[in-house]
Design brief:
Blueprint lengths: L2 E5 L2 E3 L5 E8 L7 E7 L6 E7 L5 E2 L8 E6 L4 E6 L8 E8 L6 H4 L7 E2 L3 E5 L2
Parallel strand pairs: 2-11
Antiparallel strand pairs: 1-3, 3-8, 4-5, 4-9, 5-6, 7-8, 9-10, 9-11
């Protein structure tokens, strides 16, 4: 069964750090763009970052760059999202997703539609 499994969410204080993981199961991520998206109730899913698993080229929206870092571990078939200096506005369910045909560009990484399969999501809550 092909799936992505997120982990690492939880409660973190403002200004703190958190690392999310997205592990591929039943699929080799080498040929995929892996994206991180987040969603809060009542709002559309928002692109956070994405990475070409093969060459590690990454994209960040302007609002995320500098605080979030995406990376991958080829041996573990896993993509990470390192979050720094978090604030309450970062509270959301974070999802990772795979796109077999795209590349890490603004057009791909900010639109959930091209991503064909998704993880179950992990909750991140930023609160004191």
């Amino acid at each position: 069964q092909v799936q992505l499994v997120e982990s690492g969410g939880g409660l973190v204080q403002p200004g703190g750090s958190l690392r999310l993981s997205c592990a591929g199961s039943g699929v080799t991520l080498d040929y995929y763009v892996i994206g991180w998206f987040r969603q809060v109730p009542g709002k559309e899913r928002e692109g956070v970052s994405c990475i070409n698993f093969s060459d590690e080229v990454a994209y960040y929206p302007d609002s995320m760059e500098g605080r979030f870092t995406i990376s991958r571990d080829h041996a573990k078939n896993t993509v990470y999202l390192q979050m720094h200096s978090v604030n309450p506005e970062d509270t959301a369910v974070y999802y990772c997703a795979g796109n077999r045909f795209g590349t890490a560009t603004k057009a791909i990484c900010t639109d959930p539609a091209p991503f064909g399969f998704w993880g179950q999501g992990t909750q991140v809550t930023v609160s004191s």
